[in-house]
Amino acid sequence: MDKIRFHVEEMSRLFGVKPPEVIHGTPPEGADCILRRLGKSSVIVIGDTFDALPKRLQDADIAWLVAASDRERSRKDGVSIRRGLVIGLVVGTLVVPFVILFDSLIPAVVAIVAVVIVMSPYAFRQRIYGLDRRVANVCGEEMVRHFFDYWQEHPPQMRGLYRLVMKLQPSLAKRAARLASANL
Length: 184
Hints:
mainly alpha; 3 strands; 67% helix; membrane; transmembrane helix; transmembrane
């Protein structure tokens, strides 16, 4: 664990973030490690299977977790304030006549819930693309490509809510194409 803590501290310096705490624990089934948020702090939970991974993949896992631990940067990679305002204006313009017509706030509540349901996966995907770019900029594209290749051959076998999160992520092909187009 001390080697992993030291590696997380080194990686945190490269990314310019406060090093998250590292503990040994039980990540979700199918994961070797995971980032958990506890209030304002982040904790990397390392599972028993992490040591069995090749060194390059351990480095890649730690790089993504450290990059994701930077809350400020992760938020900026989501939906921009400008886009959010435009979407809010469009939805508001469409909903106001229904609120006036039905003299009820139910259409407004339904519209807000619908926007959240539609926009959450979009914002999540933008954050994933941003993390990929950040890891590639700090650690090199070779690490990212190696990680994508490994993940393609050995996809994580997660269950429950974590499986849904995995399904909401863009495909590895889209992530690689987006990363390649960002570096042109």
